[in-house]
């Protein structure tokens, strides 16, 4: 493991998802301790997207923005909101120059699949319809997310393809949760990795799905046909249960004729890019912004 990251592991709180409500509270406390991002060079606005039910969003508008991304936060489908995602979303907006629409989708287990997907898809449609108001070209809209949010973003791309929804220029998937089956080597063997483990993944999927069988819109790795999807950037962490399912998804996208950039970050673990002092985290975060900026350029 990267030594700059390893030094922080003893400081991490020990959490699991047995009690999703307690986990949600601890996650919010951890996020509140993160230094506030610099938003001097952008406008930040809380809005509500009209849907059934309405969806809260936080919009980050850098000056002279190029394109937009509908951004889905991580948190194992059970944690997170626009407040906990504030440092992440602001950093992506600053690094990419894109308008970031951070989505406060409904959380499991109170709202199981497809609630989060429905919320995200409603925001995608709203973004396309309000592109002029946002000051962006409707042909330059991306979807993206981290962890569970990355999986939801991949599902939004599948659904938009299938339903002839808004054109998606790009999908930015950071350590996405794509496969509920957990049959890969990394999913079976990473039982004690920092922050995210096989047990956490198992519980997250259980909270999200309940007793319902997974469909490709819940677990995109189950999709038989990946053709016609937007170009993708997929980032994986070496010590992450999601690692191998993400690499497999990237390869399947390539084999379906979809352009893919895949970056496996050595020495990292799930979510470790939040440790901003580490050099590898700085490179990860800078690359996310640079990739998105390039994808949305004219």
Attribute tags:
298 residues; alpha/beta; Rossmann fold; 37% helix; 18% strand
What CATH calls the topology is Rossmann fold
Order of strands across the biggest sheet? 1-2-4-3-5-6-7-8
| N-to-C series of helices and strands | HHEEEHEHHEHEHHEHEH
Stretches with pLDDT under 50, minimum 5 residues: none
Q: Summarize the biggest pleated sheet.
A: 8 strands, mixed
CATH class: Alpha Beta
Proportion of residues in extended strands: 15-25%
Radius of gyration, Cα only, in angstroms? 17 Å
Helix content: 25-40%
List the total number of helices. 10
Broad shape: globular
Supply the CATH superfamily name. Answer: Alpha/Beta hydrolase fold, catalytic domain
CATH architecture: 3-Layer(aba) Sandwich
Strand count: 8
Structural class: alpha/beta
Taken together, the total number of domains comes to: 1
End-to-end distance:
39 Å
Overall mean confidence score, pLDDT: 96
Summarize the structure.
Helices cover 37% and strands 18% of the residues. With 298 residues, the chain is of the alpha/beta class.
Task: Give a description of the structure.
- The chain has a single domain (3-296), classed as Alpha/Beta hydrolase fold, catalytic domain (Rossmann fold).
- It is 37% helix and 18% strand.
- The protein has ten helices and eight strands.
- It has an eight-stranded mixed beta sheet, sandwiched between helices.
- Helix 3 crosses helix 10 and helix 4 packs across helix 6 (148-162).
- It is globular.
- The N and C termini lie far apart (39 Å).
